[in-house]
Structures are given as C-alpha cells and as structure tokens.
Amino acid sequence: MQEGGDAMICDVSTIVNTEGAELAVCGKVEVNDFLYDVEVVDASIDGKITCSGGVLVLAALVSGQLKTACARCLAELTLPLSFDFSETLVQEGTEEDKDVDSVIIFDGTEIDVGEIVANNILLNISSKYLCSENCQGLCPKCGKNLNEGKCDCDFFEIDPRWEKLKNFK
Ligand SMILES: [Zn+2]
Ligand SMILES: [Zn+2]
To answer: Which end of the chain is more exposed for a tag (fewer CB within 10 A), N or C?
Structure first.
C-alpha cells in the first residue's frame, strides 16, 4: 500500500486472481469532506482485502475521533468514532460487475481505499450530537448556558409570536 498525500491507494494485483489471498490494509485516513459541522480527526483503519468468489471483499475496523459541538448548548465535544464495515469490490469488465448497486467497481488493480473508508465514515456520522441527554441548552434571550444554572429571563415576554402581536397595537 502506498500512502501519498491524502490518498490510500491499494495495489491488489497480487491477490485479485488468487482465491483466498489477502492483503492487509492499515493506516491513517484523511476525511476532507465535512458533514453537519463534524470534523473527523485521527481516523485510521485496520482491515484486509480478501479475494473470495471472484470478487474482493474489503473488511475493516475504523477508529478515530469526531469533533463537533453540542446541538443544544454548543459546548465542544470530542467523541470516539469506531465502527466496522465491509464492501464488495469488483474489477471492471469481469462477470461480477453487473450488480452495481451493492458493489464498488474498480478499474485496473488499484483501489482507493481511503475514499471508500471516508465515504463509510460519512455514513456513520449523525446530524446531531448532545453533550448529554439532559442538556438544557442555551437561554434564547441572554445566551447563558442553562446547564450551569438558571438565568433571570422572563420567557413569556420574549416569545417572538407575542412580540409581533404587540407591534399591531
Ligand atoms: Zn449541551
Ligand atoms: Zn436568559
């Protein structure tokens, strides 16, 4: 496996035609796409590509960290990222490349494992993370973090629907 820049390109020429042959795929993965303001840091994979039944199967454990903010109180959060996945990889032009929905077609003998892993990481990112299930969020008026205690705001007054009605008078 070569690691040049952001790419994690795997040369599968030694296993692609050998039933049962394996190739270890380990290393760091760069995720450059951002989703829902979640930053993926220190992502790496530990897995292998196995030649099985005329196709290649990539199975790997992904680990790393997610940096984001609590959806309610905006506190910075660092969360562990850990999941495993498996993808079927089919060489273009072979019998098995018909079922395009569930497989990844690759050209030649090089597979961009980094891209496959990055896509799987994005699939495992949620749109919302909370610092705790009971997070009280921020006061919409004064901005105080209500997890640290109540503020003195009068919530009836600041309801924007009432605010509008007052202006009609
Ligand atoms: Zn929170
Ligand atoms: Zn307040």
So the answer is: C
Query: How remote is the CA of residue 128 from the centroid of ligand 2, in Å?
Result: 23
Q: pLDDT tens for residues 17-69?
A: 899 999 999 999 888 777 778 999 999 999 999 999 889 999 999 999 999 99
Ligand nearest to the CA of 149: 2
Q: How many helices (H) and strands (E) does the chain have?
A: 3, 8
Distance from the alpha carbon of residue 148 to the mean position of ligand 2, in angstroms: 12
Half-sphere exposure of 14 (CA within 13 A, CB side): 8
What is the average pLDDT score of the chain?
A: 86
Instruction: Please state the domain extents for the chain.
Output: 2-132, 136-169
Give CA separation, 102 vs 96, 110, 114, 155, in Å.
11, 19, 18, 52
- pTM of the model as a whole: 0.76
Q: DSSP class of residue 18?
A: S
- At residue 95, does pLDDT exceed 80? no
> Quick one: which ligand is closest to 152's CA?
2
